[in-house]
Amino acid sequence: MPTQSRRDRAREERRELIVRTARMLAESDGWDHVTTRRLAEQVDYSQPVLYSHFKNMQAIATAVALEGFAELAEALSNALESDGLRGLARAYLAYAEEHPAVYEAMFIRSTDLVFGGADSPPALLDAFNAIRSSVTPYADDSETLTEVFWSALHGLASLGNSARLRPDAKLARVDLLLATLTKGA
Amino acid sequence: MPTQSRRDRAREERRELIVRTARMLAESDGWDHVTTRRLAEQVDYSQPVLYSHFKNMQAIATAVALEGFAELAEALSNALESDGLRGLARAYLAYAEEHPAVYEAMFIRSTDLVFGGADSPPALLDAFNAIRSSVTPYADDSETLTEVFWSALHGLASLGNSARLRPDAKLARVDLLLATLTKGA
DNA sequence: TAGATTGTCTAGCAGTGCTAGAGTTGGAGC
DNA sequence: GCTCCAACTCTAGCACTGCTAGACAATCTA
Predict the structure, then answer these.
(1) Taking a contact as any Cβ pair under 8 Å apart, which residues of chain B between 129 and 158 contact chain A?
(2) What is the pTM of this model?
(3) Exposed, middle or buried: residue A82 (CB in 10 Å: 0-12, 13-18, 19+)?
(4) Do the beta carbons of residue A80 and residue A7 sit within 8 Å?
(5) Which residues in B lie closer than 8 A to residue A159 (C-beta atoms)?
(6) pLDDT tens by residue, B114-151
(7) Angstrom distance (rounded) from CA A169 to CA B127
(8) Hey, is the C-beta of B176 within 8 angstroms of any chain A C-beta?
(9) A-contacting residues of B 79-108, CB under 8 Å?
(10) Please, are residues A97 and A157 in contact by the beta-carbon 8 Å criterion?
(11) Are A166 and B116 in contact (CB under 8 A)?
């Protein structure tokens, strides 16, 4: 049934257009300004079309977050492989700084995604595993250390992105965090 | 002019009623459900009365955050004095867990407050100074270590509050964070 | 007591997420 | 080619949001 599959393809493309546009709007104006009307206008369809692809606005933000998990996992794996723990830490913070709205959808906005369970998004588990690999040499309890190290990175990222930390001390903070973690090991 | 001061007192009391009610609503139903209509109804005045005390809804959340800064500073100072670094860390996380909506207003929701400048709220500086005192023994650069330690605590608090960390490993995480920080010092 | 000030409310605006129901389009079967 | 049906898309509207103008009432001043 070639007709059906062509339709499916068209639907899939439009779905991606919606997600891409929502992400772009969020990065340029903030999630507050991503409204059904603005989004619909940008993709040149009426609002109900959004709801034929997504249950609600929250689901659109979730789709953006899922993209982010995949990108972050990829970035962390690469950085870990080439530059070790330090590379991973810097890559994490760089991702959060370069894609603040995506980062917000992933780790700050309330979400219906499950974290750390069997039904978590695979890309999220990949990212988590990259962090775990990076800290395993320094841990007895690698699961807990992963959570602690991730929390530290998340704290630096989120407080930094919301102008709650000195902007000129970014590098000093990462270096100090790494020194603290690796000290005596 | 006793009449004027009585009026001022009445106004001040009503202002406090508004802040108290907003805080209560936020803690019980979340900030999303703190709307001008619900809040006005709860304090038994019409919506415009809210705007005679506050510029907008954001300013009401800011007032709640300021209360939080004072409470947190107090809690951290006390804990630091009686139980040292470990006490401070636990007090921080306990405050975030027991008052998630206030914590959100303080450190997660976007705000117009200035962090770390001369015109920061004094209570916020007090809290920051308590953290600085707690880590000074372990630091060359105490300003940076304060930011890093605070970030770690904030990461644990915010990810924990949004169900992104294992609930049963709370204590293990604090202990591991403290062990890491104090190791070799 | 008359006038001015302060306080409070009703009613309304423009915007939000979301949906029911009408109308159009285009492929399937004859 | 024509009819029918299903898939699709839109207009219009609901109940809600933050916020405000302008009318009315209460209270203090002189």
Answers:
(1) 141, 143-145, 147-148, 150-156, 158
(2) 0.94
(3) exposed
(4) no
(5) 107, 147, 150-151, 154
(6) 898 888 999 999 999 999 999 999 989 999 999 999 99
(7) 20
(8) yes
(9) 107-108
(10) yes
(11) yes
A156 near A72, Cβ under 8 Å? no
CA atom of B49 to C1′ atom of C10, Å: 13
Q: What is the pLDDT of residues A122-151, one digit of tens each?
A: 999 999 999 999 999 998 999 999 999 999
Q: Which residues touch strand D (CB under 7 A)?
A: A 7, 11, 45-49, 52; B 1, 3-4, 34-38, 47-48, 51, 56-58
Contact yes or no for A169 and B147 at CB 8 A: yes
DSSP string, B135-174: HGGG-SSHHHHHHHHHHHHHHHHHHHHTT-S-GGGHHHHH
**CB contacts, 8 Å: B153 with chain A:** 155
Over residues A110-128, the pLDDT tens digits come to: 888 989 888 899 999 999 9
Task: Report chain B residues whose CB lies below 8 A from the CB of A69.
Answer: none
Residues in Cβ contact with A22 at an 8 Å cutoff, skipping those fewer than 6 apart: A34, A39, A60, A61, A63, A64
Q: Search chain A and give the residue with CA nearest B164.
A: A115
- Listing DSSP states for B66-124 in one string gives HHHHHHHHHHHHHHHHHHHHHHHHHHHHHHHHH-HHHHHHHHTS---PPSSSTTS-HHH
Question: With an 8 Å Cβ cutoff, are B116 and A147 in contact?
Answer: no
In terms of Cα–Cα distance, which of A4, A47, A41 is closest to A21?
A41
CA angle B96, B99, B104 (to 5 degrees): 70
Identify the three-state secondary structure at position A86: helix
In 3D space, the residue among B100, B150, B103, B153 whose CA is nearest the CA of residue B128 turns out to be B150
- In angstroms, the CA A67 to CA A20 distance is 10
Q: Are A31 and A61 in contact (CB under 8 A)?
A: yes
Return the DSSP state at B130: H
